[in-house]
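Q: My labmate handed me this sequence with no annotations at all. I'd like to see what the chain might look like in three dimensions before we decide whether it's worth expressing. Could you predict it?
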Amino acid sequence: QVQLVESGGGSVQAGGSLRLSCSASGYVTSRRCMGWFRQAPGKEREGVAGIDRDGTSTYADSVKGRFTISQDNAKNILYLQMNSLKPEDTAMYYCAADSCPSGRLPYSRFIDYWGQGTQVTVSS
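A: Here is what I predict for the chain of 124 residues:
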């Protein structure tokens, strides 16, 4: 019903920047919540940033002040601008979309749709 494709990952030095993009297709509506998760080897998938149904952006404490989530509604593209990258940001980053019955992006196990991921590697 909804397809998500991420792009923009790569390898950068600490302190560098990347912008991730997520192109959405299929049945995409303004009622959905969308966001980004990440998963490093041996760790659980964790929420990074999300946009709730009312448009409010939220961030994990570890990325506040460094990452910015935004969307281009006309093109159905979700972005994650990542600045001041740290080695601990290294992970596979996944775009997510949810029907969002609560109005907020849910815990990862309840997400409706996932992208295939894009790798971000930050070297020191």
